Amino acid sequence: MNPEQQETLVQANETNGHLHTHGDNHDEGYYWSEEWWKHHGAHQPNSFWTKYVFSQDHKVISKQFLITAIVMAVVAMALSTFFRLQLGWPGQSFKILSFFLGKWAPNGVMAPDFYLSAITIHGTIMVFFVLTGGLSGTFSNLLIPLQVGARDMVSGFLNMLSFWFFFVSSCIMLLSLFIETGAASGGWTVYPPLSALPQAIAGSGLGMTLWLVSMVLFIFSALLGGINYVSTVLNARTKGMTMWRLPLTIWAFLVTAILGILSFPVLVGCMLLLIFDRGLGTSFYLSDIFINGQALHYSGGSPILYQHLFWFLGHPEVYIVLLPALGITSEVISVNARKPIFGYKAMVYSILVIGFLSFIVWGHHMFVTGMSPFLGSVFVFTTLLVAIPSAVKVFNYLATLWKANIQLTPAMLFAIGVVSFFISGGLTGLILANSALDINIHDTYFVVAHFHIVMGSSAIFGMFAGVYHWFPKMFGKMMNRKLGYAHFWLTIVSVYGVFFPMHFIGLSGVPRRYYSNESFAMFDSLTSINQVISLFAFLGAIAQFIFIFNFFYSMFRGRKATQNPWKANTLEWTTPVEHYHGNWTGAVPVVHRWPYDYGKPDGKKEDYIPQTVPLDPGEKDGGGH
Amino acid sequence: MTTLLICVVIILSVIFIARSIRVMELISELKPKDDVQEQHKENKWNARILLLFLIVMFIYFGYQTFSYAKYLLPVSASKEGAISDKMLWINFAVIGFVFVCTQILLFWFGYRYMYQKGKKAFFFTHNNKLEFYWTAVPTVVLLGLIGYGLKVWYDIMLKPVPENKMVIEIYARQFDFTARYAGKDNQLGYAYFKLIDGPNRLGIDSTDKASHDDILTTELHLPVNQPILLKMRSQDVIHSTYMPHFRVQMNNVPGMTTQFCFTPTITTEEMRKITKNPKFDYIMVCNKVCGAAHFGMKMNVVVESPEQFNQWLGGQQTFIASMRQQKSTMAMK
Q1: Which of A385, A399, A443 is closest, CB to CB, to B240?
Q2: Mean pLDDT to the nearest integer, A232-248
């Protein structure tokens, strides 16, 4: 190539501002055209390694995320059943514990050290590996390119890297369960000084180091993923796909990715300082400590600084977990209610407002930590404001269901579950956000009940809704419906069975993270409630095996899916059932309307109009009549 | 051997389930059945269960609310707790109302608007008036709750501490609490972690005159109706001073002093009558995970009349006296 040619190419690149491959000079829109497919479609990856392992295809990466997350979730769930055994029947010997835990359960009784490790790793895996990596990793990856009309993520390579960082960090987190001194055990928030000093607790030794290494790798993965998601949504949309024609899933994933990009780097900083304090003798978080008969040299640091940095991520993290679930719920509810989502724009604005507010509320985790009470009152104000967009979302869901024509598929049932949990857990949030009330219920089981319902269960139900709904797209097979119903009903019963009574335990003043309540006579009467909770927890755990069985069985033996099994409008259902790298075999379809034209009174027989159908003359878009 | 058997049984039963589902599917493929019709039937069933679930859920929640009410904390034993408790029940009334209404609508709609073939849903995309109301009403209610909450928060945490307060330090370490009364001068003597040495386990500076009349105890006694200013410190990791009966909680953070001011209003004796439990005792528990024995870290708390309190405190040794005694026993050895 001579310099002149090179210059024209650079100019063309600048004016087009679009994705090019191999530096070819093409018209704008080439990426979405049939010519692209003719040129690239022939080069499908066909070796085992490039197709299934080091694949750069977003659909494969999405499945990799999902299956890794399922494995991690099984581990976290197993840990929770183990510590529910201890909490329901403290001090009793269980063969199953000595079988699985070995030296961590001498004579079948869980050791206090292991109890703390178990809750720490349970929380870490669930929040980060299942509901952040698993949820965003699976559905942002699967749906962003398919629903905006892109051939793939803008950088397939970074996307692949994102998964492999996630995979390695998952392995390290699991590995940390098998070391001599035990896994990290300061709770999932790992507050220093406890997490910084191996003298304070055995788990703060090598276990904590592995935890930190794993988390730093995890954050790399989340950032690589997030940058890709944002750039794909902003740059790779097909013709006609304006921002106001994006499905709510995409809006939710976009805001989630932005929250992650803005907050995860702060967590890396937070973790690095902790690594320095642990290894290099700095005093960012530590000061005036006397332990094991020895005055330590640390001076001038503040444990409160750690909490500020941690929760600056920690609170947006709650929405990183929740927003994708709400996005999926919006889509699933609209499709299965055969009715447009009510107040599409209000839904988008509330996602944006929740995203913004999530950055200025972190202090509500710290009302009684010694933070200035005046600062506390500012956080009360901002936190309670979050309830307004949340209320709007709930009312909009209810209005969508009103006078609908509801298909209660397993996905739809789970979506209804999400809304139910979002209400129940969101309302107790009003109590916790009120600092004066928080004094007495801070760090009690009331908090445990609250966030397990609003964040844990909502998000995991959102994930289930997504899996049942998009399984045909992922694997080209249908999941078994009846097993899906059984899974849903057993799970929702056990979620309320486990977490509703916990509110009462919290209001009786029982602190969280207690290995047993036996030291306190005032908690003796609560034993029977704890046993009921444990029984529901076991029921919930068993129910998940129905799902896992259904998942893997249907993957291989399920009924073959049709191209658009739910009669949905969005673009992913215009791709062939078989997967191709490049998604559409031919040109990417052009979008003509918003994604929620269900039940539009147009005199036609079908009650849905895909986004690719041009507007009739005189027809208004976006639900206008 | 048993383990192996259990594994074999589990694997076999998974295979069995997989095979039987396969058989069922093959049978259903043989019989040409209308899948749409089938789905319609399932739909009806699920809609009914939605309704049933709603009813059972409310019965179960109601049952819990009534039968677990006796386990909740008794009336607040402090002035501050009484005002926040009142707010708690008002808040619960508001959220309880919203909870019941929205859950009923959600599950009822799920049942009422089940799929009907050939029917089209009502094409209802937005309604500005409706949306305005359901944004404005929650906003007004929330502003009310915020204002009320901030007022109570101010009264508990930000109001100037009363002149006649009694200063007590709560010193936490793995895994116990120590109380330090400020003594006659109502001033805590200076303390520093590098001065911790054998019996002087709080690191109190004995050259500071204010420390001489300080009194260290392992039980917390409080005179009733006397404003108490608790000063929290920690020796090693973060702990939390939590006294649920007084609605008092504040973290003990190494490297800094935190505080909480409250006035106990009910003596232990009176509370025993209120709770009808002759063994009732106030308690302070650690509420921030602080190590393997976190779950047993506590201190007994007694609220009594000022006379009883003064008698008890008079019987305790001052810091300087205990240091002198320690020294002399050392010298004798």
Answers
A1: A443
A2: 94
Query: Cβ neighbours of residue A236 under 8 Å, at least 6 residues apart?
Result: A19, A31, A145, A148, A149, A150, A151, A153, A154
Identify which of A373, A416, A507 has the shortest CB distance to residue B158. A373
Q: Do B121 and A444 touch (CB under 8 A)?
A: no
The DSSP symbol for A452 reads I
Report pLDDT digits (tens) over A403-462.
999 999 999 999 999 999 999 999 999 999 999 999 999 999 999 999 999 999 999 999
Domain contains A519: yes
pLDDT tens track for A559-569: 899 999 999 99
Does residue B124 belong to the interface with chain A, where contact is any CB pair within 8 Å? Answer: yes
Q: Which residue in A371, A294, A97, A379 sits closest to B173, CA to CA?
A: A294
Question: Is A26 inside a domain boundary?
Answer: no
Residue B150 lies in a domain: no
- Is residue A300 within 8 A of residue A317, CB to CB? The reply is no
Q: pLDDT digit string (tens) for A177-190?
A: 999 999 999 999 99
User: Which of A9-18, A422-431, A575-584 shows the lowest mean pLDDT across its residues?
Assistant: A9-18
Q: By residue range, what is the domain housing residue B197? A: 166-332
Work out the minimum CA distance from A559 to partner chain B, whole angstroms. Answer: 9
Number of domains, chain B:
1
Rounded to whole angstroms, the Cα distance separating A446 from A501 reads 9
What phi and psi values does residue B251 have, to the nearest 5 degrees? -75, 145
Distance CA A167, CA A186 (A): 24
In this predicted structure, which of A272-276, A605-609, B136-140, B279-283 has the lowest mean pLDDT?
Answer: A605-609
Token readout for B207 is 């050259």
Kindly tell me if the per-residue pLDDT of A22 is higher than 60.
no
Query: What is d(CA A461, CA B124) in angstroms, rounded to the nearest whole number?
Result: 26
Q: CATH number of the domain that B224 lies in?
A: 2.60.40.420
On whether residue A526 sits in a domain, the answer given is yes
Q: Report if residue B312 sits inside a domain.
A: yes
* Model confidence pLDDT, tens digit, residues A289-319: 999 889 999 999 999 999 999 999 899 999 9
Sign of the torsion formed by the C-alpha atoms of B171, B173, B177 and B180: negative
- Using the Cβ of B274 and the Cβ atoms of chain A, whether some distance falls under 8 Å is answered with no
Whole-angstrom distance, CA of residue A270 vs CA of residue B37: 57
Q: Among B79, B89, B238, which would you mutate to test the A interface (most chain A Cβ atoms within 10 Å of its Cβ)?
A: B238
Residue B103 in this model has a pLDDT that exceeds 80? yes
Residue A553's domain comprises 60-289+296-574
CATH code: domain of residue A285: 1.20.210.10
Residue A38 lies in a domain: no
Number of domains in chain A: 1
In this predicted structure, what is the pLDDT of residue A624?
A: 58
Mean pLDDT, chain B, integer: 91
Q: Is B209 on the interface with A (CB under 8 A)?
A: no
Strand ranges (E), B106-165:
none
Name the residue among A250, A111, A318 with its Cα closest to residue A595: A250
Q: Look at residue A25 in the predicted model and tell me its pLDDT.
A: 61
DSSP A619: P
Average pLDDT of the residues in A346-372: 94
Is the preceding omega at residue A193 within 30 degrees of 0, hence cis? yes
pLDDT number for residue A46: 78
Contact list in A for residue B295 (CB cut-off 8 A) is 112, 513-517, 519
Strand B298-304 and strand B220-223: pairing?
parallel
Q: Is A10 exposed, middle or buried (0-12, 13-18, 19+ CB in 10 A)?
A: exposed
What is the per-residue burial (b if ≥16 Cβ within 10 Å, else e) of B232-270? bbbbbbbbbbbbbbbbbbbbbbbbbebebbbbbbbbbee
How does DSSP assign A381-404, residue by residue? Answer: HHHHHTHHHHHHHHHHHHHHHTT-
